[in-house]
């Protein structure tokens, strides 16, 4: 199966797409511009149509050049609208997205009336047609990916600063507006790379999903960006391989499903940020709180009865014998903090010291 020419092209294209999408999508997510990929991908459609009209054929270089041009214009429009008008980012993205996609649909309709036989399959750019990827297309995609990665490495510190503290970057004399434009145009490059693989409609998920998954595993940008690229490449290869196992399975949607699976697993299992991790942490905190409450209660009861080293378990045994309290008592007994005497629970020496420390901490916080 791996010796198949078409599969080789699809896998290599998916690797390139995953790498550039993961790296550049991380910066878009950190800048709270998750809809930017959606906007630029829809803005690429009129560029594809203009490239076809100018070239008169489905030559990939012309189509990508047109997509990059309109994507760059859309990116510049978003930056200008958010900086020089009272529109917020989401409003600017929505305006540019809808206008660009409407223009693309109009151009597609115009092309259909041109009676040009080469227009066949042009609609595939809406949802991608990975099987049509050629080695010449891969060379173009590899060149765009290499250019984007080189720019990220060369401007790493500047991009990092404008993502987390653009005000400080501006105070340091950095050309923040120019850097934002460059970064936004680079995201347009990622969209151009993914047009053939996943199409205009699904490219938004490919830009954001790997970054969202990687963000759950690490709070450091130096770890998050490579991890996002790894998730993107793994999803691309997985979708390409799964599409070969059945007839009629589209590669682009399968890639998006795979990367969405990575997001779901990350949201559930990522340490310190995953939902299951947080649920387990809250369970441990509640268990610890119940144990502390019972320890301090026994400590106070021992003090009231004049037994500084022994807890009076009579009230606990008679009134507080519900199942939850029994579980807490057993947990404390396993830790050696309480013991049973004449069918009544009382503090051990270790439990007395632990309860005293807890009360001292509570009194310190109160003061």
TrEMBL record:
<keyword id="KW-0812">Transmembrane</keyword>
<dbReference type="InterPro" id="IPR037294">
    <property type="entry name" value="ABC_BtuC-like"/>
</dbReference>
<feature type="transmembrane region" description="Helical">
    <location>
        <begin position="221"/>
        <end position="242"/>
    </location>
</feature>
<dbReference type="GO" id="GO:0043190">
    <property type="term" value="C:ATP-binding cassette (ABC) transporter complex"/>
</dbReference>
<dbReference type="GO" id="GO:0071281">
    <property type="term" value="P:cellular response to iron ion"/>
</dbReference>
<dbReference type="GO" id="GO:0006826">
    <property type="term" value="P:iron ion transport"/>
</dbReference>
<comment type="similarity">
    <text>Belongs to the ABC-3 integral membrane protein family.</text>
</comment>
<keyword id="KW-0406">Ion transport</keyword>
<keyword id="KW-1003">Cell membrane</keyword>
<feature type="transmembrane region" description="Helical">
    <location>
        <begin position="91"/>
        <end position="111"/>
    </location>
</feature>
<protein>
    <submittedName>
        <fullName>Manganese/zinc/iron transport system permease protein</fullName>
    </submittedName>
</protein>
<dbReference type="GO" id="GO:0010043">
    <property type="term" value="P:response to zinc ion"/>
</dbReference>
<feature type="transmembrane region" description="Helical">
    <location>
        <begin position="6"/>
        <end position="27"/>
    </location>
</feature>
<keyword id="KW-0813">Transport</keyword>
<keyword id="KW-0410">Iron transport</keyword>
<keyword id="KW-0472">Membrane</keyword>
<keyword id="KW-1133">Transmembrane helix</keyword>
<keyword id="KW-0408">Iron</keyword>
<feature type="transmembrane region" description="Helical">
    <location>
        <begin position="63"/>
        <end position="84"/>
    </location>
</feature>
<feature type="transmembrane region" description="Helical">
    <location>
        <begin position="39"/>
        <end position="57"/>
    </location>
</feature>
<dbReference type="GO" id="GO:0055085">
    <property type="term" value="P:transmembrane transport"/>
</dbReference>
<feature type="transmembrane region" description="Helical">
    <location>
        <begin position="176"/>
        <end position="209"/>
    </location>
</feature>
<feature type="transmembrane region" description="Helical">
    <location>
        <begin position="248"/>
        <end position="270"/>
    </location>
</feature>
<feature type="transmembrane region" description="Helical">
    <location>
        <begin position="139"/>
        <end position="156"/>
    </location>
</feature>
<dbReference type="InterPro" id="IPR001626">
    <property type="entry name" value="ABC_TroCD"/>
</dbReference>
<dbReference type="Pfam" id="PF00950">
    <property type="entry name" value="ABC-3"/>
</dbReference>
């Amino acid at each position: 199966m791996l010796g198949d020419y078409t599969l080789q092209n699809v896998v290599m294209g998916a690797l390139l797409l995953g790498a550039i999408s993961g790296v550049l999508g991380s910066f878009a997510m950190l800048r709270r511009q998750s809809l930017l990929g959606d906007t630029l991908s829809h803005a690429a459609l009129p560029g594809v149509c203009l490239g076809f009209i100018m070239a008169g054929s489905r030559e990939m270089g012309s189509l990508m050049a047109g997509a990059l041009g309109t994507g760059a214009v859309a990116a510049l429009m978003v930056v200008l609208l958010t900086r020089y008008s009272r529109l917020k980012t989401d409003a600017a993205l929505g305006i540019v997205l809808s206008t660009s996609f409407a223009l693309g649909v109009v151009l597609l309709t115009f092309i259909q009336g041109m009676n040009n036989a080469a227009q066949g399959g042009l609609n595939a750019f809406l949802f991608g047609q990975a099987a049509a990827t050629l080695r010449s297309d891969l060379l173009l995609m590899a060149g765009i990916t290499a250019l984007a990665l080189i720019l990220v490495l060369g401007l790493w510190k500047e991009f990092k600063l404008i993502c987390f503290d653009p005000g400080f970057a501006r105070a340091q004399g950095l050309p923040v507006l120019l850097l934002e434009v460059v970064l936004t145009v680079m995201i347009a490059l990622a969209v151009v790379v993914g047009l053939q693989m996943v199409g205009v409609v699904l490219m938004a998920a490919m830009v954001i999903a790997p970054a969202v998954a990687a963000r759950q595993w690490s709070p450091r940008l130096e770890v998050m960006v490579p991890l996002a690229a790894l998730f993107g490449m793994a999803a691309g290869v997985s979708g390409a391989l799964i599409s070969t196992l059945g007839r009629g399975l589209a590669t682009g949607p399968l890639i998006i499903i795979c990367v969405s699976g990575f997001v779901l697993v990350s949201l559930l299992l990522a340490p310190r940020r995953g939902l299951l991790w947080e649920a387990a942490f809250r369970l441990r905190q509640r268990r610890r709180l119940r144990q502390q409450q019972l320890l301090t209660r026994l400590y106070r009861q021992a003090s009231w009865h004049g037994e500084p080293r022994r807890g009076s378990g009579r009230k606990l045994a008679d009134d507080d014998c519900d199942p939850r309290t029994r579980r807490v008592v057993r947990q404390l007994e396993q830790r050696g903090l309480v013991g049973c005497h004449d069918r009544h629970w009382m503090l051990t020496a270790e439990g007395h010291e632990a309860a005293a420390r807890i009360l001292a901490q509570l009194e310190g916080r109160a003061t």
